[in-house]
Design brief:
The chain is of the alpha+beta class and 372 residues long. The protein is built from 10 helices and 15 strands. Helix content is 25%, strand content 27%. The structure holds fructose -6-phosphate and magnesium ion (2 copies).
Length: 372
């Protein structure tokens, strides 16, 4: 049997310049040095250090499978090294996503986010990695649904025999810590009923139903770590990362990109407490600005070959065909901002990551008059 390859995308915000904007080049350098060491020690096969706004993204290939303690420890130590540099430079929020002092076997639950796929490499293995800043894991629900289940997005669902039988979705209920599997197209409406509530039900993985890849092998995986739930209080963002495999009976790269040509609304933005449009960006606009946003998505395309990442990657959204989406996102940002502190720009009370409500309730306790 062919040796399997694992692609791991593990990310954390370990500090940024100026405020919550971008990762400092010295932090990126420290991460590269750390992962280079991991290659020479034989822990991982290859890597690419990317960023998404203020998040450091470690993209690694290896032979050790998902949730591997050595790989996760490598990521953790790399984030720690980045944190040291961030502290020296007094970068903002140095070490903010490392919620505990000691690593214990797996980064899940410790602060960083991770998306990993173990696969039998196809003869040619194109992948896209999408990295979002200033939003939450559920922001992936809409584009992932459209890529794998919407025939108006992905032509292959109608005219490619392998895609025509549809895809299988693994959805996590991140409040009740349980999951469900739903097949499209038959259970599409059930799926939508859940994933429309994107703060609670999030697409974790997608599987093919054809024989183009093994049935138990994910073709897409999204990080679903929610920092606020891990710590039980606001400690930072839960900006997600997602991996999508492309072509040959799976959605083509063009169909995968098509899902982002329209700026849908996501939760996050300033203080993790606002709805706003997701703006897809190339490397040159890979940072947040206005009102700490609008929320961004940066994408890189690779080929995987014998557990290495063929470089340089493609800057997936650096294309004039995405200009209208960016322009529309900027216009929508304007529109949403004019609501100021009002919903639906500001999130509903129980979804806000910053709130003064408990203090206000206390302050005005006893002043409320009964109107029944
Ligand atoms: C952070 C983020 C920002 C901050 C905001 C306030 O990822 O989304 O919008 O929440 O800039 O940050 P503090 O409280 O650190 O000054
Ligand atoms: Mg930050
Ligand atoms: Mg971030």
């Amino acid at each position: 049997m062919a040796e399997k390859t694992t692609l791991s995308a593990i990310k954390a915000d370990v500090g940024s310049i100026a405020g919550h904007q971008v990762v400092h080049p010295d932090v990126i350098e420290a991460a590269r040095a750390s992962l280079k060491e991991a290659v020479s020690l034989g822990v991982i096969e290859d890597f690419y250090v990317a960023t998404a706004g203020d998040d450091l993204q470690l993209l690694m290939t290896h032979r050790r499978g998902v949730d591997n303690p050595k790989v996760h420890e490598t990521a953790w130590l790399t984030f720690q090294r980045g944190t040291e540099v961030a502290k020296e430079l007094h970068l903002y929020g140095a070490g903010q996503d490392l919620l505990v002092d000691a690593f214990s076997g797996n980064v899940r639950g410790l602060g960083p986010g991770s998306a990993e796929i173990e696969m039998v490499e196809r003869p040619s293995e194109p992948v896209a990695i999408f990295m979002m800043d200033k939003t939450e894991p559920g922001a992936f629900n809409l584009p992932i649904f459209r890529i794998f289940a919407d025939p108006f997005n992905s032509a292959g669902l109608v005219i490619d025999t392998a895609m025509h039988m549809g895809f299988r979705f693994e959805v996590w209920d991140i409040e009740e810590h349980r999951r469900i599997f739903l097949n499209c197209p038959e259970q599409m409406y059930d799926l939508l009923a859940f994933i429309g509530t994107k703060g609670r039900f999030v697409i974790k993985r997608v599987y093919a139903r054809s024989n183009k890849v093994p049935k138990d092998e994910p073709i897409a995986c999204i990080s679903t770590d929610k920092l606020s739930q891990i710590a039980g209080k606001y400690v930072g963002k839960d900006d997600p990362v997602g991996i999508v495999r492309a072509q040959s009976g799976l959605p083509g790269m063009g169909e995968i990109l098509e899902a982002w040509a329209w700026p849908f609304l996501v939760s996050g933005w300033n203080r993790g407490s606002h709805n706003g449009p997701l703006m897809v960006v190339g490397q040159k606009d890979n940072r947040t600005a206005r009102f700490d946003g609008p929320p961004r998505c940066f994408g890189l395309g690779f080929q995987i070959a014998n557990a290495t990442l063929v470089k340089p990657p493609v800057d997936l959204f650096d294309d004039p065909s995405f200009e209208p989406a960016r322009r529309q996102a900027a216009e929508l940002a304007d529109y949403m901002r004019r609501h100021g502190p009002f919903e639906p720009h500001r999130l509903p009370m129980d979804e806000m990551e910053y709130t003064t409500m408990p203090e206000l309730m206390e302050k005005h306790k006893g002043k409320w008059e009964d109107v029944r």
